Amino acid sequence: MHGVFIHTRNLKKSAAWYSWLLGLPFREEDVQSPVYNLPTKEGSYLTIDDHCNDPSYQFEPIKTPVFNFCSNDLKRTYEDLKEQQVPIVREIEQHGDFGWFNIEDPDGHVVMVCGDIR
């Protein structure tokens, strides 16, 4: 997979939020419509797109996860996100020593967080 697109209504707000979530550097002055590419170090690209050049585009939040982020300590990540008041829309589910839960981004997209449960 080359990259993931996240569609947004507010490019700067989403770029700041995903940068915070992933612990990536963020400078608001680097955000230029229509897209912002998060500075990932390896793996797939993560691009946020505001569709400002597409007048026919109609934004709709995605309510089932189409991608996920990984955590080395899922319970700690869950507690950290809950403490930061990130909306948790599905509680931790566990299968053996692996689990997942879902959060909601500022646009209402549901994102899955997976990982090891200690």
Please specify the SSE layout and strand pairing:
Elements: E1 3-7, H1 11-22, E2 35-37, E3 45-49, E4 68-71, H2 74-83, E5 88-95, E6 98-104, E7 110-116
Parallel strand pairs: 1-3, 4-7
Antiparallel strand pairs: 2-3, 5-6, 6-7
How does this structure look, described?
This is VOC family protein. Residues 1-116 form the VOC domain. InterPro entries: Glyas_Bleomycin-R_OHBP_Dase, Glyas_Fos-R_dOase_dom, VOC_core. The chain has helices at 11-22, 74-83, and strands spanning 3-7, 35-37, 45-49, 68-71, 88-95, 98-104, 110-116. With 118 residues, it is an alpha/beta fold. It has 2 domains: 1-56, Signal recognition particle alu RNA binding heterodimer, srp9/1; 60-118, Signal recognition particle alu RNA binding heterodimer, srp9/1, CATH 3.30.720. It has a 4-stranded mixed beta sheet with strand order 4-7-6-5, with helices on one face. A 3-stranded mixed beta sheet has the order 1-3-2, covered by helices on one side. A hairpin with a 5-residue loop joins strand 6 (98-104) and strand 7 (110-116). It is globular, with a radius of gyration of 15 Å. It starts with a strand and ends with a strand. The mean pLDDT is 94.
The secondary structure category is: alpha/beta
The structural domain count equals 2
The largest sheet is: 4 strands, mixed
Poorly predicted parts = none
Termini separation comes to: 29 Å
The gross shape turns out to be globular
Strand order, biggest sheet?
4-7-6-5
Reading the helices and strands in chain order gives EHEEEHEEE
User: How many strand elements?
Assistant: 7
The CATH topology label of the largest domain is Signal recognition particle alu RNA binding heterodimer, srp9/1
Protein name: VOC family protein
Organism: Halobacillus salinarum
Domain VOC: 1-116
